[in-house]
Specification:
By secondary structure, this protein is mostly helical. Helix content is 71%, strand content 0%.
């Protein structure tokens, strides 16, 4: 019996397709690696340094008024909860699915639109309320960071590419997740921002549909 007669072990279909899938989603892959890196540092790094970095990355009115671009960028480099955050599981699934359909640049555009607009639309009313005396000056500083606004916008935009049954199931799942999260840790501004991010993703439906490479039947 020669070597050619021996049975060949084939790779599982998932492992065989995985490298090709990752090559098709470079934005999602790179971004996920960044979040994994910052999540590991948040878990293993010096607690005082980590706290200072998160505080400096907070998208509160004080930081946005001093260095808006850097604040918006740095706040999107962290996942709330660190390396054990459920965002690290949902993030590559949602953004990867959207990137396969509309490309990396458009996926990044939807993410940034949700992240930036939802942040500004929640913090500008705070600044106005402090200016007229409805809120104390301490409201200008609060700990608010993470990828949730951009992720929710991308998930809502992805729903626009699905068949109606899956579309409303995805939107309903997002709604349930947001309600469950608010029951665990309720923050009015954050919940308002999540709702705005969801609406921003829905507004992007026409854009992603026009530029979709393919849609499931």
């Amino acid at each position: 019996m020669g070597p050619s007669a021996l049975p060949r072990l084939s790779k599982p279909p998932l492992l065989d397709k995985l490298p090709r899938t990752l090559i098709r989603v470079p934005f999602t892959l790179g971004y996920t690696l960044v979040l994994l890196g910052t999540g590991l540092y948040a878990r293993l790094g010096d607690p005082g340094t980590v706290h200072d970095l998160l505080a400096d990355s907070s998208t509160d009115v004080s930081h946005l008024s001093q260095r808006p671009l850097l604040t918006l960028l740095f706040s999107a480099l962290w996942a709330v909860g660190g390396i054990t955050s459920p965002y690290l599981v949902v993030f590559p699934l949602v953004l990867g699915a959207l990137e396969r359909r509309v490309g990396g640049a458009r996926t990044a555009g939807v993410f940034l639109l949700g992240h930036v607009l939802a942040t500004l639309l929640t913090e500008l009313p705070v600044a106005a309320s402090v200016a007229v005396g409805d809120l104390p000056a301490s409201s200008l500083r609060r700990l608010d960071y993470g990828v949730s606004y951009g992720l929710i916008a991308c998930a809502a935009a992805l729903a626009g590419l699905l068949v109606p049954r899956l579309r409303w199931a995805l939107l309903g799942g997002i709604g349930v997740a947001l309600v469950a999260g608010s029951l665990v840790d309720f923050d009015p501004l954050t919940e308002w921002g999540h709702g705005l991010a969801l609406l921003i993703g829905v507004v992007c439906w026409l854009y992603v549909r026009r530029n979709a490479r393919w849609r499931p039947s």
